[in-house]
């Protein structure tokens, strides 16, 4: 009895800081996201269901730090591996993402932008190598200067859910969708920002022909970018959005 209690204590410590997308929707249709249960099942030799969401080890403190911007982890989180399935989304359609924080609390970080990216798989996304994916930014919201309200606050007000639109002009094909929150509450100090990226395999359908070129994960962000090394505790009038130029499709 005593040992199982201390094991529970250890597990509770492990999951305290996590944040992950447990559910997502395509044009309002529910899809299974990645659950921490799957991490423990895999670790214990159990089976993990086939889903379109990527496996990732969003454990310990639960985020990718600027010190890891030069590593594969910035793509789709730590030790990420593609989901086995791919879900169909029509160009112009929407995807919504529900973020679960530890103990199903509201998302704890109300300061920071929310971004979404697409990367062409050039083949089956279940075999994608995250270090080869070139990301195109398709959605980025920072702060509303008139209300001083961050995208993260909008997410919390909307039941921890964010909706992005697939550009109508994007060429059909297989893509990894990368959705990300960047928490800035500690970003006033070097390496204090917290990136929470999550990935999903999708097949975009339609008749668009835009094939914008993307940016490798390791080139997306720099620790000293003024939107990453950023003090949020003041009136904000000019937030420089990190990452490459937004694709306006
Ligand atoms: C928020 O979304 C989650 C996931 O879909 C759902 O389980 C929960 O009931 C929702 N809560 C509210 C207050 O709508």
Plain-language structure description:
The protein is an alpha+beta fold. It has one domain: Coagulation Factor XIII, Chain A, domain 1 (Distorted Sandwich). Helices cover 13% and strands 29% of the residues. The strands form 3 sheets. It has a 6-stranded mixed beta sheet. The N terminus is likely disordered. Bound molecules: 2-acetamido-2-deoxy-beta-D-glucopyranose. The site of 2-acetamido-2-deoxy-beta-D-glucopyranose has 3 residues, from loops. Its cofactor is Cu(2+). It comes from Apiospora kogelbergensis. It holds the Pfam family AA9. Keywords: Carbohydrate metabolism, Cellulose degradation, Disulfide bond, Hydrolase, Polysaccharide degradation, Secreted, Signal. It catalyses: [(1->4)-beta-D-glucosyl]n+m + reduced acceptor + O2 = 4-dehydro-beta-D-glucosyl-[(1->4)-beta-D-glucosyl]n-1 + [(1->4)-beta-D-glucosyl]m + acceptor + H2O.
Can you tag this structure with a few keywords?
249 residues; alpha+beta; Coagulation Factor XIII, Chain A, domain 1; six-stranded mixed β-sheet; 4 helices; 12 strands; 13% helix; 29% strand; binds 2-acetamido-2-deoxy-beta-D-glucopyranose
Topology:
Layout: H1 2-15, E1 19-26, E2 29-32, H2 36-43, H3 73-76, E3 87-90, E4 94-101, E5 114-120, E6 134-141, E7 143-144, E8 149-150, H4 151-157, E9 161-165, E10 173-183, E11 194-205, E12 215-216
Parallel strand pairs: 3-11
Antiparallel strand pairs: 1-2, 1-4, 4-9, 5-6, 5-10, 6-12, 7-8, 10-11
This protein binds 2-acetamido-2-deoxy-beta-D-glucopyranose.
Largest sheet: 6 strands, mixed
SSE string:
HEEHHEEEEEEHEEEE
Radius of gyration: 18 Å
Number of strands: 12
CATH class: Mainly Beta
The domain count comes to 1
Low-confidence stretches: 1-16
**What's the number of helices?**
4
> Which architecture would the CATH scheme give at its second level?
Distorted Sandwich
Distance between the termini: 58 Å
Which molecules other than protein and nucleic acid are bound? 2-acetamido-2-deoxy-beta-D-glucopyranose
> Can you tell me the CATH topology?
Coagulation Factor XIII, Chain A, domain 1
Q: What's the pLDDT, averaged over the residues?
A: 92
Helix content: 10-25%
**Structural class of the helix and strand makeup?**
alpha+beta
What oligomeric state do these chains adopt? Answer: single chain
Question: Which strands sit side by side, in order, in the main sheet?
Answer: 3-11-10-5-6-12
Proportion of residues in extended strands: 25-35%
Q: Which geometry do the CA atoms define? A: globular
């Amino acid at each position: 009895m005593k040992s199982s209690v201390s094991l529970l204590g250890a597990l509770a410590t492990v999951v305290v800081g996590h944040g992950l997308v447990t559910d997502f929707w395509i044009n309002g249709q529910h899809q299974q996201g990645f659950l921490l249960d799957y991490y423990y099942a895999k670790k214990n030799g159990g089976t993990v269901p086939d889903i379109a969401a990527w496996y990732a080890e969003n454990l310990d403190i639960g985020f990718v730090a600027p010190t890891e911007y030069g590593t594969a982890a910035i793509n789709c989180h730590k030790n990420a591996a593609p989901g086995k399935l791919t879900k169909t989304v029509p160009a112009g359609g929407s995807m919504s993402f529900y973020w679960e924080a530890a103990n199903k609390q509201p998302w704890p970080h109300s300061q920071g932008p929310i971004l979404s990216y697409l990367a062409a798989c050039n083949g089956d996304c279940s075999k994608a190598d995250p270090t080869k994916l070139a990301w195109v930014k398709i959605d980025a919201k920072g702060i509303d200067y008139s209300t001083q309200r961050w995208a993260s606050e909008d997410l919390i007000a909307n039941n921890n859910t964010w909706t992005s639109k697939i550009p109508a002009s994007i060429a059909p094909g297989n893509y990894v969708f990368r959705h990300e929150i960047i928490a800035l509450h500690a970003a006033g100090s070097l390496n204090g920002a917290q990136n929470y990226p999550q990935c999903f395999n999708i097949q975009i359908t339609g008749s668009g022909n835009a094939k914008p070129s993307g940016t490798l994960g390791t080139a997306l962000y720099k620790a000293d970018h003024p939107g990453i090394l950023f003090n949020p505790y003041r009136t904000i009038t000019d937030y420089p959005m990190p990452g490459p130029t937004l694709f306006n499709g």
